[in-house]
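Section 5: illustrative case.
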């Protein structure tokens, strides 16, 4: 089924067709397909496994925030440029075409849309890419299991992150305007 998605944009379309859920879970791609819903972490793992089926390495990148939750992306390279696939409750934190020359550029492309419900700009750092193939030997069958994949989230937390902004600049950040916040919340679901 994953091979039928054919392109990274096709993987994003499949994720966009699934409702976003807020449960405290870490479902495998198999479970995501069965339930037909996902949140950020599950969507990124699903996308990384789908990318692997299409011949890309299964890479995740963690975006770290303050006074907000982290966001996880499945990242890929085409012709030397980075792109990303993501599942989010915020409209501006999803797909990125592969036009970014560096991971820093890619991470910064999420800056304006990465806000909490108060309108604070919260993105602060990004991780190096984590290749999920690292779990093939230690957790055989992880991608097709029915169990939760909390070990992926735990690994991402321990990966070194690179700061995006100097602290002095962070202190001067203002909130986004009301219209920008409302635009980011198009389709937002809160339980």
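Designed sequence:
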């Amino acid at each position: 089924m994953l091979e039928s998605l054919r392109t990274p944009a096709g993987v994003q379309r499949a994720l966009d067709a699934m409702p976003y859920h807020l449960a405290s879970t870490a479902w495998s791609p198999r479970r995501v397909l069965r339930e037909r819903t996902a949140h950020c972490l599950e969507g990124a793992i699903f996308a990384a496994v789908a990318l692997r089926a299409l011949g890309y390495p299964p890479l995740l990148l963690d975006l770290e925030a303050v006074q907000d939750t982290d966001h996880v992306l499945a990242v890929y390279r085409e012709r030397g440029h980075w792109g990303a696939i993501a599942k989010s409750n915020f409209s501006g934190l999803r797909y990125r075409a592969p036009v970014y020359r560096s991971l820093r550029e890619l991470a910064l492309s999420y800056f304006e849309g990465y806000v909490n419900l108060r309108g604070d700009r919260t993105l602060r750092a990004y991780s190096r890419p984590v290749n999920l193939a690292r779990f093939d030997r230690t957790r055989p069958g992880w991608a097709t299991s029915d169990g939760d994949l909390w070990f992926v989230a735990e690994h991402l937390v321990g990966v070194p992150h690179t700061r995006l902004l100097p602290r002095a600049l962070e202190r001067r950040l203002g909130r986004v305007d009301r219209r920008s916040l409302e635009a980011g919340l198009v389709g937002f679901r809160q339980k």
